[in-house]
Amino acid sequence: MSAETITQKLQNWSLLLFIAALLYLVLLAQNYFEITHQIAAGWCSLLLLAVLYKQRIFQQPPWRIVFILLAGYLAIRYALWRSLQSLIYTGPLDFIGMALLYLAEIYGLVLLFLGMYVNLWPINNRSLLLPGHNDNLPTVDVLIPTYNESDDIIRTTAIAATQIGYPRDKLRIYICDDGGTCNKRNHPETMQEAWERHFRLRRIARELGIHYITRETNRNAKAGNLNHALNHTDGELLLILDCDHVPTTDILQRTVGHFLADPKLFLVQTPHFFINPTPIEKNLSGIGNPNGENDMFYRTIHPALDSWNASYFCGSAAVLRRSHLMEAGGICIGTITEDAETAFLLHSKGYNSVYVDQPMACGLSPENYDDYVLQRTRWAQGMLQMFITNNPLFAQGLSWPQRLCYFNSCFYWLFGFSRFFYFIAPALFLIFNLKIYHAAGEQIVAYVLPYILSIFLIMHFLYSKARQSFFSELYESIQAIFLIPAIISVIINPYKPSFKVTPKGYKQNDTSLNPRANIFFIIIVINFIALIWAGIKWLHEPLWREVILVTGAWCVFNLCLAVISLGAYWERKQIRHFHRVNVSDEISVSFPRLNYTTKASLTDLSLTGIGFKVQVPYPLAAQERILFEASHSNPDGTPGHLFRFEAKLMRFFHQNDGYYLCGSELILDRKKYGEAVNYVYGSSDRWLKLWNTRSASKGVAKMLWYFFITGLKGTHRSALTLFMQTRSMLQMYLRRANLPRKTAAK
Amino acid sequence: MTRFNLHDNFNWKAVRSIYQPRNSKRKHWLAIFLLNCMACMFFNLPVMAKEILIPLQQLTSHSALKLRCIADEQSIMIPISERWDIKKVTLDLNYISSITMIGDHSQLTIKINDVPIGQTKLNPLAPDVILSINVPVQYLKPGYNKLSFAVSQHFSMKGCESPCAPDLWTHINIRNSSLQVEYERNPVPLKVASIAKFIFDPKIYPESRVNIITEDHSPENLTLAAIVASGVARRFDYRKVSFEVSHHIKSGMDNIVIGRTGYMHQFLQPYPFSINEINGGYLKIFPLPEVDGIDSTHALIVLSGESFDHVKLAALTFSNISFAYPGTQELNAFEFQVPDLTPYSGRDVITANKVYDFRTLNFPTSTFRGMNPSVKEVSFRLPADMMMRHNYAAKLSLNFSYGSGMRETSALNILVNDIMVRAISLNNKNGDYLQEYQLDLPTYLFRPGANVITFAPELHPDLKECDLLLSNLFISIFENSTLTFPDMPHFVELPKLELLMLNGFPFTRWPDGYDSLIYLIDASNESITAALNLVGMMTQKNGFPMLSIQIGLKSPEAWKGDLIIIGDPSKLPAELKESSPLHIGSSASLIPYPVIRSWEKEAATLSFSRQMSSFGESNGLIMQFESPYQKGRTVMILAAETPATLLNLSEALLDSEVQAQISGDMVLVEMAYPKPKVTSMEVGKKYTSGKKGDVSRIDSFLYAYPYAYYALTGLLILGFALTAYSLLKRFRIRRKLTGMHHEK
Q1: How far apart are CA B459 and CA B406, in angstroms?
Q2: pTM for this one?
Q3: What amino acid positions of A are annotated as catalytic residues?
């Protein structure tokens, strides 16, 4: 045994010893120390954590690990106190409530510890550029699976794929169409649409010089589609793109190099970058700019998973090595999250993965809450299927860190239960008098408050660049209750769920409250009644005021969260068909009518138009023709291709500083459309810049306040609606019962 | 009544012949007997009747009995021992009544066992009254007799009178009130059963003495004496009992002789008593022989057997006879089974998670009547080292009923240790019967040791005061109400001599004294007596005989349990001297003097003086500190320079006023008149003790030095982080080798 191995083993054992010693110390303090000592220990640790949080040095290892461990210490204190001292049997119903709350808390604690472990030392900046000239580059097949998406979306993605910077002889692009399968074309109900789609997509493929593939049936959904394509292609590498994921030109230049460097590499995953806002972002448009929900996953969690060699396939915007993939029998079909399952299988075979944290595929996220919940339901069900059928914790072939990472990714999706229980738990005590949490005032001060506050600190420490405070609670709340039935159905029958495609490109035509929000109305009522009971109990049960105070505060938190969730469920009307992206760049603008050319600042752009800010010494005219010149840089930093577009000035606003704020519509023919795609979607640097801009977004309080006010108004409106509906139902019932009018009036 | 003991020229051999009657001597003896009787009648009888003064203050914990409202009644219990033949009782009563009452319509009635024995008008012109009342002795019975004071008080005869106006009060001044009791002693029934109730009776006032005679002063015999003393003390309950140790019978008190058969025959040989064949443990009761006769009002109890084991069997049997069986004069014991003991059990101590009904807790079904009913209490004890967890709750399940027609403001107030915790509204005008009314009482209201739950109803009539109908004002709390106390960890910071005075802790952690040793530095009678007094006191505190306590005469360095050391401190083993708060050295001692008394839980600021001195002939010292032989175990030293002072110290410890002043880890008791002076200090090192007594050195150290604890925690976190960092770094380097060359 080498000296290095011995040292490592010693260190492994010493880690265990450290853990055991820490546990011993925490237990010792809990058993013997007076509560004043515990209060001092809890709050001093918290204060230290808050001070260290502000120190930049603690962002980087090894001090980063010290910070995380200090937060872990507070969590361990709480976990041991909660487990050993606060679980008291006081009756069967109390016990059920207490056990459920305890399980919910333990669930949260496990996730917290896993989160801290996974995020100990994330890897960033993993982009690896291909050398300028290399004749030994592997052949790459670009697979674009599609099911029912519009031609525009598919065409854009396909055009962008043709513009990928890679030797043409080594790049083949395939539209893998599941909307025009033989079955669909032969089925009387779908045949017309399927045939039309079949012909349209074939035509697009022919025009672009790419391939069109379809198959007999739609068996195994997306996974089946890709597997079918695998059998009809032979590239060494596969770039898989959802049909709404438009690639940048450098996607292969930044990813293929990893495959050359590591023969055991099976996957390079890149972030899913969404050009359109999620429903929450959309609702906050003009109020604030929150991080997208997936930001947290792609910006912090995935780099952390990558540090443990546990970055997994997310279904799109990823490059896979065919040879390794075929060892696993292609894309897995056991679950409806075939991507994660495939990565799990290949990891367990000893292959590696890499995550490149630069957005290189721009996609569309669900446009409304129904689609949003549908997508999350699929993820939840799929990951839970994997959790049940593969049990990552005991999977053969995975290293322990990989097991924990996969366990974390699957286990997370049970959050619906805990969030739901947190919503009703205080009411169980305040209304039904169930004793579900046994804590004296001093213990709350000593253990509970430092723990809760430390959670906010550590969450902010780990995820602040990808998630604003309290938005995790908001995101979880709006999904939680709707995920519960789906999760239960998987637990009952893990093989039952089927793949449902997330609709993309939906347009919200009016502002309305999503019907799903009604459940929050019930939660608000429950917590409101509980709050009233808290007041009554406060007067009548002075001995329990400490507990009443805590549960009352909890109710207030629940009320706020429910009202904010209700506010978030008000869906705003969407005006544009193509989403405009706020960008900042310099372009050259010519006004032929004025024979004037000048530099302008780009403010937003989309495939149909460009917004810019320009200083022109002449008056502008609506509908006048203008010319643009713009470029984006190459991956190596050199100036790239120069783009020239013709456009029509649609509207302009003269500002006080002498600048015009202009909106224009591009005049595009087929060739220019391709250039527009290249210009708008082709640069990963632009997406990276935009991504980083979002991460610095502020104004959390303002956004939450907006949701709160909207929610309050919504509650008011919902209450009125409910009242009106109840009254009309009552009147209808009385009318049907043929009661005299007077009685009915009464 | 026989009074042989008062005859001057008494012949022991003659007395023996009474018990071995022979025809030839019977007449002669009859003559002597008759002469004796006549002598007693004419000369001795008047002086034999004893007279004692019992201050009422000593019969109740209250300083005054307050009688309020238009009608009220309060009572105290008068103990009358079965050994007493009461001849005359006089009550000297001092009371003060309100000067605004109407004398003609206000009166005080004195009752014995609910029978009125006297009444007086509450004269507003003479509010401070001293009254002397002859109590008819026929109303008194052996046991506890209720002496009640009932008042009817009025301040207005016109219109409506507020039934509980502040003007309506009478205070019985208990400090200045007393009972004068004249009694003669009854002869001791010569049956073993009289051990249980008759001989050792807590109702004997004011205190008792018992002489214990052992075969020799070997540790085995002394241990047996301790067991016997413990059994005696337990029967006396809370009544003060002091022991004497000698090799011969002492008159005027009950004597117990302990020894093997051979010794016993030899011991009884001078007396007219014989013992039958001894099998196993042997126990027999005789009247007390004296130099000049036999005192039938005291007993000589013989505990014997063929071997030490048999004698111990007799001692254990003696210590546990608790009711009137057997009715014979002697018994042979062959086996004795000690009940399964659990740590921390004892007098009134409640076991965790066990449901106690109120009847078990000495709270029979009780009815509170009228507008100003007196309070009633449930008293119980919690282990002295119980560490209260604040988030737990004791469960009180009440079954009670109350009368109809009460005003809605009526309530049943519940207090825990004098802290009001709940008022249950009695707001059903039709009356009600409530079953299993659940109350959760937070455990932070309770404390280790004695606890009291008080029920104090406030009953208000619904009618106008003029139309008072009070008989419907009642609430009954039923004895099937229950109390359940949750389990708590046992952990306590020591030394705390107050815990010794609370229930003998830590020596009664096992209630039978298992794991406790009394080490006598010398085997003088005074040291042994001090040990027995201490055993008796601890037994009375904890309520369980210390059947497993041991007395040793050898150096206790191998002893791993708790230790009591009695004797001259200069003869202590060196390590004990060094560990004690006084740091007693061979040439000089290091005496700690507190300079500043600080906050309650803060250690006093100490100065130290190295000096050669002693604590004087009239001073006794008690010290408690951690055993140098075993972590977490306790050593307690009872020390005095002279054997006489040591004996006085042990007797002083039996005084409740002295007990109340003892706390900390070092107590100096000056044998002053009329009461000893007590100085308590906290000068020694703290240590901790857990459920089994032992606490690991690391635990104890970290508890004592919390900053070390926090520093260690910080170091562990740092160490953990750096080790994890090193491992992660290696992991990442390895991953680079397999494909991660390009991390920026």
Answers
A1: 7
A2: 0.72
A3: 178, 339
